[in-house]
């Protein structure tokens, strides 16, 4: 075979091999993509289904005055701006929850667990905190006028610029709590554990049990 004929035959074989490979690749099956059901896709994008407790949706700005939320598990829930006036939150678990700017006037928080909750600018007027755990809560600028604290744990709570006009503090743990620039007018302090508690620049007009060295 002449060199020219050999070269022609070799090129033809290479071309045939390339065409065969291309045909096999084109014929190879393409792995199918599994479609995600519409409901699962929506759930993934919007998060878990919202919690509803005794007819009260647990989300920001919910409107549930007088709701029965006894023993409810509300750990870490966002209830910012919620209307929970007169709600029964006895023994509810609100650890780490967000109650900022919520309305809890007259709410019953007896035995509630609120450690590390955030409730700045919240209305707690006339609320009951009997045996409530408020350790390390953020309660700045909230209104507790007329509220009752009895046997509650407020250790390391931040209560700066809060109002406690006419509030009653009886037998509470106030260790390391911060009442800086708080309004304690007409409040009652009796039998509380006060150690490293700060009352700097707080108003204490007609406060019963407030000590001169607290200022």
TrEMBL record:
Domain of life: Bacteria
Keywords associated with the record: Signal
Annotated signal sequence range: 1-34
InterPro entries, alphabetized: 5peptide_repeat, Pentapeptide-BTB/POZ_domain
PANTHER family in UniProt: BTB_POZ DOMAIN-CONTAINING PROTEIN KCTD9
Protein name per the record: Pentapeptide repeat-containing protein
Organism of derivation: Oryzisolibacter propanilivorax
Organism phylogeny: Bacteria, Pseudomonadati, Pseudomonadota, Betaproteobacteria, Burkholderiales
């Amino acid at each position: 075979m002449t060199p020219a004929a050999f070269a022609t035959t070799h090129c033809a074989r290479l071309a045939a091999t390339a065409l065969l490979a291309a045909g096999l690749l084109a014929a190879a099956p393409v792995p199918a993509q599994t479609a995600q059901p519409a409901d699962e896709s929506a759930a993934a994008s919007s998060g878990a289904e919202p919690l509803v407790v005794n007819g009260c949706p647990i989300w920001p700005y919910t409107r549930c005055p007088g709701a029965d939320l006894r023993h409810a598990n509300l750990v870490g829930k966002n209830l910012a701006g919620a209307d929970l006036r007169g709600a029964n939150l006895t023994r509810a678990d609100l650890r780490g929850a967000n109650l900022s700017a919520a309305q809890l006037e007259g709410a019953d928080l007896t035995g509630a667990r609120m450690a590390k909750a955030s409730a700045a600018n919240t209305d707690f007027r006339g609320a009951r905190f009997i045996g409530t755990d408020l350790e390390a809560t953020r309660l700045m600028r909230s209104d507790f006028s007329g509220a009752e604290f009895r046997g509650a744990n407020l250790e390391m709570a931040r209560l700066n610029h809060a109002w406690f006009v006419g509030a009653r503090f009886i037998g509470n743990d106030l260790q390391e709590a911060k009442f800086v620039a708080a309004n304690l007018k007409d409040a009652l302090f009796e039998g509380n554990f006060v150690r490293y508690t700060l009352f700097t620049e707080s108003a204490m007009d007609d406060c019963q049990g407030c000590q001169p060295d607290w200022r």
